[in-house]
Amino acid sequence: MSTYALSLKDLNKSFGPAKIITDVNLDIEKGERHAIIGPNGAGKSTLFNLISGLYTPTSGSVKLHGEEIAGMAPHLINHRGLSRSFQVSNIFINMTVRENVRCGVLNAMGQGYSWWRNIGSNKEVQSRTYEILERCGLVDKAALPASLLPYADQRALEIAITIAGGADVILLDEPTAGMSHSETDRAVQLIRTATEGKTLIIVEHDMGVIFDLADRISVLVYGEIIACDTPENIRGDAKVREAYLGDEEEPDVKEMV
Ligand SMILES: Nc1ncnc2c1ncn2[C@@H]1O[C@H](COP(=O)(O)OP(=O)(O)OP(=O)(O)O)[C@@H](O)[C@H]1O
Predict the structure, then answer these.
(1) Looking at the 3D structure of the chain, how many domains does it have?
(2) Weakest mean pLDDT among 60-64, 107-111, 128-132, 186-190
(3) Which of 21, 134, 204, 220 fits a 20 to 30 Å CA distance from 117?
(4) What distance separates the 2 farthest-apart alpha carbons in the chain?
(5) Is residue 109 a part of any domain in this protein?
């Protein structure tokens, strides 16, 4: 049995005649921080949707901790320990920050909303909620309605909800999109803290974030992984430079996506 946190084998996805993901093979170690990069329309979100159960593969295998999950419903994959964030925020804007995180905690504990009135007295829920708020730097803002959070804090809350269930494989989809430089720096720190000890798979356009965070990078172009290596080796990979930049020499790595 595989010891990989996540293992993709001969994975394919077509929509009608359009082949979007082609023969993807990828093994991700437990605790690894793995980035998926590629030009717009390369298939990064489709790959995330295949891993998290939103799409069923046309063919191939997706294994989470050695167990087949391809085609399984997203909530069942989530209960097996994989959680993802979305490019478009998933938070309940009329609820407080604390209530949003509590929802994630309760959902993972399999509690329905009939529990809602009693949750204030449920110590385990309270302590897990507090721990997540702290990890994500949101303790001071716990009582605020989510709608009043600045944009960067809303993205932090999105990460808090993603990790609230205690999943050990975390997928983050462009977590720093739309952020300023200083907000991005803070977000990278937050991602590092919030996902400590977990396996992280991140789709991101900001190369600074990728090179700062990732142990390995996969480069997806037209639905195929054309390179998978350490950031240093990816930086010097001729195929990758060509895919992004044609024949240009000495490319600025910040312009790779
Ligand atoms: N449900 C769908 N039906 C048909 N085509 C789709 C569907 N979902 C995605 N595609 C197509 O698959 C291709 C890859 O899209 P995808 O969103 O996965 O790319 P991406 O790498 O995430 O792009 P971006 O960086 O812009 O977010 C695109 O050409 C898109 O139009």
Answers:
(1) 1
(2) 107-111
(3) 134
(4) 63
(5) no
- Using only the alpha carbons of the chain, give its radius of gyration: 19
Q: What is the pLDDT of residues 35-77, one digit of tens each?
A: 999 998 999 999 999 999 999 999 999 999 999 999 999 989 9
Q: Look up the domain containing 23 and give its range.
A: 1-80+214-257
Evaluate whether ipTM surpasses 0.90. yes
Considering the domain boundaries, does residue 49 fall inside one?
yes
CA–CA dist 18, 228 (Å, integer): 24
CA 225–ligand 1 middle distance (angstroms): 15
Residue 191: CB atoms within 10 Å:
26
CA of 3 to the centre of ligand 1 (A): 30
Nearest to 173 by CA among 142, 196, 205, 148: 205
Separation of alpha carbons 153 and 174, rounded Å? 15
User: Is the pLDDT assigned to residue 114 strictly greater than 90?
Assistant: no
Q: What CATH number should be reported for the domain holding residue 219?
A: 3.40.50.300
Q: Is 182 in the pocket of ligand 1 (CB under 6 A)?
A: no
C-alpha of residue 43 to centroid of ligand 1, in Å = 5
Ligand 1 pocket mutation pick from 46, 48, 86 by most atoms within 8 angstroms of CB: 46
Q: Residue 57: name the closest of 41, 75, 69, 40 by CA.
A: 69
Give 234-251 pLDDT, tens digit per residue.
988 988 888 775 544 444
